[in-house]
């Protein structure tokens, strides 16, 4: 652990200073002379020893047999062998076996003290003591553990003599029993036998087709395929947590393992064996080959378990994958290709920075993806995205974003009100009011208000560029609209003639001509789409009787879309870069919808213009019908729009007296 945590300090201080610091740390950590994982010694006599059973995890100290040194490893490497050596001698009263010490087996004629060892994961089968003629009283599962199927042991190999011997699993176990220091065997398909001397849980990985067994272990049958519990699945399904449910299924291996192996082996089924990222580095030019992964860091540590290397990857910024061998841990990113390791017997492995069980342990991330999946994408406009984690199985908090919801409700109320007003006007004035024009103008004005709201909302010290870009766009858009209006009023085309006649009629029929003109200009230079309102013939008012030339207004619609697209792009960029606790602004939804409406509107205007060009007779008939209806209200408009016709050709007031009286009553 010290070598992993302070290598940089050693390099900075130099070899001698670093060694002194390491020695000082060791002296401070073990100032009482104890070995790691051991408890203080205690007094014990021969009469206090168990007369029937061995005692595990306890060491004895006392008087060694006269002329008999502790038995070397070459003769004894198992607890059973040490007990048999003591039983074979009449002068032996007790024995003690510790496989971590050399020599491991001590035969004694008397005992004086004992000591407990707490390093259970490393040596629970190989530290024991007892009196002469005692036995192992543990249950059979402890004395002869079951074979672990689809499990592999990393490192700790003592012999590769039988890797190509084509042995059966029983023969591989028998070879382990008679081989010095062999305590475990590993049998891998097809018929490859490895002999090992230790099996800690940290050195085990789940591996399909590999079996690990104790030297005197037994076959207990093949395990079954593990799946999540019905309770967990039902709870996640009921809450609609499909992403968590997917992670839960992915956290179980696709091959059969025992429940104990799944619980004890780190990230069972997550790691890949015998494979490393593709990486070719030219030291002379200090360049890497095309397609090579990016090596972030190398940790030169002896016997780095996959889980330890994975934790280092999780602590390294940008690390996406790791690979580990017996003496190295490599951290990678941008892995494009995986290649097999050259040595088929190597213990190289690799894996992602986070396994499914890691993500489940982290909890459910309540981000925009969760709310989109749980409540549809529209929920992002009315819910606050908390961006917090909750334990698996718990629901994410649901809090209404009232400003966003209020803005959407306001838009709906305004549009509905405009539609009702236009519909009433159309019904009252014999279907002369253009409802579509009224709605187009309402959407255009609300679109401008939405842009202003977004600019005001985007004032954030972290993203000031969004605010200034939006404000600059609004200023440029208003200046451009003003220039477009001036161009239209002074143009020699049809729309210019229509506009000037309309302004003349305003001056003739409205005593508040200047006020009306100021309002018209003010609303129009904010958004060109509001010009549709003045051509809608709303409530028969002269201010809404502007005649529309399709070609000119199609051009203005294209200009309006060109103005809106930069603002929508800016808002979408803001959402993608900053979708934090406030969620997605509702103004962005309105802007997106208005832009879609703008595109559809241009398509419809284009089709209408194309039809009027292909079928001029239909367009002429529609134009004449419109002018006849208008002439009943004001013959001067009829004559202004049709100067080539004589006065006598205009509809007679006498013949339409009833209509005029009815119009007068309505206006009153």
Can you offer a commentary on this structure?
The structure is a single chain. α2 crosses α3, α15 packs antiparallel against α20 and α21 packs antiparallel against α22. Strands 1, 2, 3, 4, 5 and 6 form a six-stranded antiparallel beta sheet that branches. With 668 residues, this protein is of the alpha+beta class. A hairpin with a 6-residue loop joins β4 and β5. It is 45% helix and 15% strand. The chain is built from 23 helices and 22 strands.
Estimate what percentage of residues fall within beta strands.
5-15%
Low-confidence stretches: 1-37, 618-668
Distance between the termini: 94 Å
What does the overall shape look like? rod-shaped
Helix-strand makeup class:
alpha+beta
Helix content, binned percent: 40-55%
Mean pLDDT: 77
Based on CA atoms alone, the radius of gyration comes out at: 43 Å
Please tally the helical runs, counting DSSP H or I stretches of 4 or more residues.
23
Number of strands: 22
Largest sheet: 6 strands, antiparallel
Compact summary:
The chain has 668 residues and is α+β, with helices and mostly antiparallel strands.
Provide keyphrases for this structure.
668 residues; alpha+beta; six-stranded antiparallel sheet; five-stranded antiparallel sheet; 22 strands; 45% helix; rod-shaped; disordered C terminus
SSE layout and pairing:
Elements (H helix, E strand, L loop, with lengths): L1 H4 L1 H7 L1 H15 L12 E2 L11 E2 L1 E7 L14 H9 L6 E5 L6 E12 L3 H4 L3 E5 L8 H4 L4 E6 L3 E3 L9 H10 L5 E5 L3 E5 L7 E11 L15 H9 L3 H9 L8 H6 L7 E2 L1 E3 L3 E2 L4 E2 L5 E6 L6 H9 L6 E4 L4 E5 L4 E3 L8 E4 L3 H7 L1 E2 L2 H8 L13 E2 L11 H27 L6 H23 L6 H27 L3 H16 L3 H14 L23 H28 L8 H29 L1 H18 L1 H7 L15 H11 L1
Antiparallel strand pairs: 1-5, 2-6, 3-5, 4-5, 4-6, 7-11, 8-10, 9-10, 9-11, 12-20, 13-19, 14-15, 16-18, 17-18, 17-20, 21-22
Helix pairs in contact: 2-3, 8-9, 9-12, 14-15, 15-16, 15-20, 16-18, 16-19, 17-18, 19-20, 20-21, 21-22
């Amino acid at each position: 652990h010290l070598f992993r945590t302070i290598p940089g300090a050693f390099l900075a201080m130099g070899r001698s200073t670093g060694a002194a610091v390491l020695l000082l740390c060791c002296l401070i950590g073990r100032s009482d002379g104890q070995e790691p994982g051991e408890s203080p010694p205690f007094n014990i006599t021969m009469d206090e020893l168990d007369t029937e059973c061995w005692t595990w995890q306890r060491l004895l100290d006392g008087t060694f047999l006269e002329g008999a040194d502790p038995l070397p490893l070459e003769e004894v490497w198992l607890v059973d062998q040490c007990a048999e050596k003591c039983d074979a001698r009449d002068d032996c009263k007790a024995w003690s076996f510790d496989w971590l010490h050399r020599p491991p087996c001590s035969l004694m004629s008397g005992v004086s003290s004992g000591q407990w060892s707490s390093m259970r994961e490393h040596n629970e089968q190989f530290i024991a003591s007892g009196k002469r003629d005692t036995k192992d009283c543990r249950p059979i599962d402890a004395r002869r553990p079951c074979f672990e199927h689809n499990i592999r042991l990393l490192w700790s190999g003592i012999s590769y003599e039988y890797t190509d011997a084509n042995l059966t699993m029983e023969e591989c176990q028998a070879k382990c029993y008679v081989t010095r220091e062999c305590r475990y065997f590993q049998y891998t398909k097809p018929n490859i036998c490895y002999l090992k001397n230790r099996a800690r849980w940290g050195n085990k990985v789940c591996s399909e087709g590999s079996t690990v067994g104790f030297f005197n272990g037994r076959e207990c049958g093949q395990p079954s395929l593990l799946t999540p519990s019905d309770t967990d699945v039902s709870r996640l399904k009921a809450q609609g947590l499909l992403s968590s449910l997917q992670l839960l299924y992915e956290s179980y291996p696709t091959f059969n393992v025992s429940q104990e192996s799944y619980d004890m082996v780190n990230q069972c089924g997550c790691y890949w064996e015998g494979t490393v990222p593709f990486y070719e580095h030219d030291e002379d030019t200090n360049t890497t080959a095309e397609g090579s992964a990016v090596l972030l860091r190398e940790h030169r540590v002896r016997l780095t378990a996959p889980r330890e290397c994975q934790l280092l990857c999780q602590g390294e910024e940008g690390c996406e994958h790791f690979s580990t061998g017996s003496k190295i841990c490599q951290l990678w990113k941008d892995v494009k290709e995986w290649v097999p390791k050259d040595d088929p017997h190597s213990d190289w492995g690799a894996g992602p920075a986070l396994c499914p069980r890691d993500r489940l342990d982290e909890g459910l991330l309540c981000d925009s993806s969760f709310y989109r999946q749980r409540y549809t994408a529209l929920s992002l406009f009315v819910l606050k995205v908390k961006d917090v984690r909750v334990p698996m199985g718990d629901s994410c908090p649901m809090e209404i974003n009232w400003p966003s919801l209020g803005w959407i409700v306001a838009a709906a109320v305004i549009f509905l009100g405009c539609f009702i007003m236009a519909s009433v006007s159309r019904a009252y004035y014999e279907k002369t009011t253009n409802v579509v024009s009224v709605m187009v103008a309402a959407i255009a004005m609300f679109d401008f208000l939405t842009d202003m709201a977004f600019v005001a909302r985007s004032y954030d010290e972290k993203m000031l560029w969004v605010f200034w870009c939006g404000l600059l766009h609004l200023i440029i858009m208003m200046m451009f609209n003003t220039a477009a209006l001036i161009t239209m009023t002074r143009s020699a085309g049809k729309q210019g003639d229509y506009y000037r006649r309309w302004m003349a009629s305003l001056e003739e029929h409205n005593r508040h001509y200047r006020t009306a003109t100021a309002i018209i200009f003010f609303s129009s230079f904010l958004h060109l789409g509001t010009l549709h309102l003045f051509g809608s013939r709303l409530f028969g008012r002269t201010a809404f009787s502007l005649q529309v030339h399709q070609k000119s207004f199609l051009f203005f619609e294209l200009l309006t879309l060109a103005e809106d697209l930069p603002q929508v792009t800016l808002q979408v960029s803001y959402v993608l870069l900053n979708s934090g606790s406030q969620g997605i602004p509702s103004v962005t939804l309105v802007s997106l919808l208005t832009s879609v409406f703008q595109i559809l509107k241009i398509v419809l205007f284009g089709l209408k213009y194309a039809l009027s060009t292909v079928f001029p007779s239909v367009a002429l008939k529609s134009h004449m019908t419109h002018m006849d209806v208008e002439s009943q209200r004001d013959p001067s408009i009829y004559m202004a729009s049709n100067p080539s016709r004589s006065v006598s050709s205009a509809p007679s007031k006498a013949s339409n007296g009833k209509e005029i009286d009815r119009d007068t009553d309505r206006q009153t």
